[in-house]
């Protein structure tokens, strides 16, 4: 069984540019590459689970969103960091789709597609309340990345910088 970490994208792995619409604006947050590499060495598989309502809002197309995700994955791959899967919700909050975080449809889908994943040894890492709620609803440990950690949204852990993950997520 494989240990796994689910990551939010914007504001977690990369800087949160409001409705990021071009691969040109991808900027990894401080410590992300080094930390992912170390976590990979500890045996974790990585997934990205992201809300991309900018598609439905008309800021960019579905294909463009896919391109940005592909570019992100290939930049990580260049650093020998493998992203096992990238899942995103293209809908508008008002559509009440089943896949927009904090709904757990995308996690269910991942579980079905990758039966070898051990959800009991997994984490959800994100910078928003929805991320924490997604993980909690699915019964996995949650880690909030926040500059102050004043509001934890019931996350199991709160960290101020990405590299602190290495203190929380062990072998
Ligand atoms: Mg985010
Ligand atoms: Zn959706």
TrEMBL record:
EC category name: hydrolase
InterPro entries: HAD-like_sf, HAD-SF_hydro_IIIA, HAD_sf, Heptose_bisP_phosphatase, Histidinol-phos, PNK3P
GO function term, MF aspect, one: metal ion binding
Taxonomy of the source species: Bacteria, Bacteria division WOR-3
Site (Contributes to substrate recognition): 100
Transmembrane parts of this sequence: none
Positions contributing to Mg(2+) binding: 8, 10, 127-128
Gene3D superfamilies referenced in this protein's UniProt entry, alphabetically: HAD superfamily/HAD-like
SUPFAM superfamilies: HAD-like
Marked site (Stabilizes the phosphoryl group) residue numbers: 50, 101
Domain of life: Bacteria
Residues holding substrate: 8-10, 16-19, 50-53, 100-101, 128
Entry GO terms, CC: cytoplasm
Positions annotated to bind Zn(2+): 89, 91, 97, 99
Assembly mode: Monomer.
Cofactor(s) it depends on: Mg(2+); Zn(2+)
Main subcellular location: cytoplasm
Protein name: D,D-heptose 1,7-bisphosphate phosphatase
Keywords: Carbohydrate metabolism, Cytoplasm, Hydrolase, Magnesium, Metal-binding, Zinc
GO biological process: carbohydrate metabolic process
UniProt EC number: 3.1.3.-
